[in-house]
Design goal:
- It is a single chain.
- By secondary structure, the chain is an alpha+beta fold.
- It has a domain of 164 residues.
- Helices cover 21% and strands 10% of the residues.
- The strands form two sheets. Strands 1-2-3 form a three-stranded antiparallel sheet, with helices on one face.
- 27% of the residues are buried.
- About 6% of the residues have low confidence.
Length: 280
């Protein structure tokens, strides 16, 4: 990490005024190895720096299974240098479409003070998220190791943020700027004087090594609301009093055995008088 940090919300112009202005030192002795292994896992989050930056700067990510959400297979970059959308697809012939740029190039840093940094400081510089951006590959190749005096992003609306980031990095690691570089930065910031110098950033977190990957636990669903009951006024009729009980069984009702009662008919039998025998 940088030894010095710009004050919180410090203006980039004010920070630029604190950076020494010197001539460029010889490039003698420079090699990429002077800044450590390329894209090392310096923060020990289980993922290399390149994939850390791809996950930070790309959207609609597809991650390789079995890599603890580290390796980016595809995504979309809203490129700050060209203001275009770039589809990233991991592959030997396609990955170079999106490259990770050192905002302050390693070679430029070597010629402006990084030779005096310790090995650990140079490794930190090469992997510092503040000094790294996922950008359009061809634009990054065009920039090469140029400073603000020789190259600025084609997207003019990003130049203030780009220069402010370079100023933060150089101030943080105790590097200097050339006179041409200083003047170029001042010209850019003249149109955006309130642009703040950004502070250091942390790499995006990944699951710890060996940690089991589980889907997030969702809270239990809320109970469904009960249906609203409409209150209505009902008129309840008064109870009907029972009929008076009578002894015996009314005529015509079925008997307990289920048969209807027999109807008795009154039969009148007319008897003829018997003849009385005559007396002799």
């Amino acid at each position: 990490m940088p030894e010095k940090q710009p004050a919180l919300a410090a203006k980039a112009l004010d920070v630029l005024a604190t950076i020494p202005v010197k001539g460029r030192a010889p490039k003698t002795g420079y090699s990429r190895d002077q800044f450590g292994q390329a894209w090392a896992d310096v923060d020990r989050n289980g993922c290399d720096t390149r994939n850390d930056m791809l996950r930070r700067d790309l959207s609609d990510l597809a991650l390789k299974p079995g890599t603890r959400d580290c390796v980016v297979l595809s995504g979309i970059l809203n490129d700050p240098y060209t203001a275009t959308l770039i589809n990233f697809l991991r592959g030997s012939s396609t990955s170079s479409a999106v490259q990770i740029d050192h905002v302050v190039a390693l070679s430029d840093a070597w010629q402006k003070g990084a030779q005096q940094l310790t090995e650990a400081q140079r490794v930190s510089f090469a992997n510092d998220p503040l000094n790294l951006l996922a950008v359009d590959g061809p634009a990054n190749q065009q920039k090469s190791d140029g400073d603000a005096a020789t190259w600025l992003p084609p997207n003019k609306s990003y130049r203030c943020d780009y220069v402010a980031r370079q100023i933060s990095v150089k101030a943080g690691y105790g590097l200097w700027v050339t006179r041409a570089e200083h003047d170029a930065m001042a010209r850019v910031l003249a149109d955006c004087r309130n642009t703040a110098a950004p502070a250091s950033q942390a790499s995006p977190a990944t699951p710890a090594a060996g940690a089991a990957s589980h889907p997030p636990r969702l809270p239990p669903p809320l109970p469904l609301p009960l249906p609203r009951q409409r209150c209505t006024t009902r008129t309840v009729p008064p109870p009907v009093p029972p009929a008076p009980r009578r002894c015996g069984r009314p005529a015509g009702l079925p008997r307990k055995d289920g048969r209807r009662p027999r109807r008795h008919r009154l039969r009148i039998r007319v008897l003829s008088p018997r003849p009385v025998p005559a007396k002799t």
